Amino acid sequence: xxxxxxxxxxxxxxxxxxxxxxxxxxxxxxxxxxxxxxxxxxxxxxxxxxxxxxxxxxxxxxxxxxxxxxxxxxxxxxxxxxxxxxxxxxxxxxxxxxxxxxxxxxxxxxxxxxxxxxxxxxxxxxxxxxxxxxxxxxxxxxxxxxxxxxxxxxxxxxxxxxxxxxxxxxxxxxxxxxxxxxxxxxxxxxxxxxxxxxxxxxxxxxxxxxxxx
Length: 213
Prior knowledge:
Blueprint: E1 14-19, H1 30-47, E2 49-56, E3 60-67, H2 72-91, E4 104-107, H3 110-122, H4 124-127, H5 142-145, H6 158-163, H7 167-177, H8 183-195, H9 202-212
Antiparallel strand pairs: 1-3, 1-4, 2-3
Helix pairs in contact: 1-2
C-alpha cells in the first residue's frame, strides 16, 4: 500500500508527533534530551524549519512547526532521526529501529487552533501526570513561550506574538495554560494528527481535503 502523501501548505503551521518503536523509551537521561535538542536545532536551522512549540517526553515528542518549503519538515525530521538514532544505539549498545514508522504531521488551522496546539504540546507532561505545573517540566518550550526564558530552538509564531507580545499578555498565556483543553479540542488535535487530515474547523478541513483529493 503506497504511503500517504505529506500535505504542505505554504506558511501553514503543522503539528508533528514522532514516537519510539513499539512506544519504547527514546530518552533515558539528561544527556539524551540535550543531544536530541541539539540535533533538532541544527537540522531545523539548516533546512529552514521554524519551531514554535516543542516537548520531549520519555517515548515520544511533539512539535509545532512552520516549514518554509515542502522539503523543510521531512529533511529536518530525517536528519534529526538518523543522527539521534545512531547516538542512542551506540550509547546503549543496541541495534534496530528506534522510531515507530514515519512521523505523524497535520496542518493546523492558524486562526482557530494554533493556540490550542501550543497548549496541547506544552501541557503534555501535566496530562501525563508527570508534573502538576508545566513550568516544572524542563524539556519543553513552555519556559520560552510563557516565562520568556531564552530558547534558541523557538521562533514564536506571528499569531502568538499578536496575542502575547507584552508581559501582560504573556501573563494571559500562563492563565490560559492553567485551563484544560476541552474534550473536543483534544479529540480534534489527536484525530487530525493521527490521520493527517488537518486540525481545525470544518472550512479548514475541507480546504485540506481538497489538497489530497
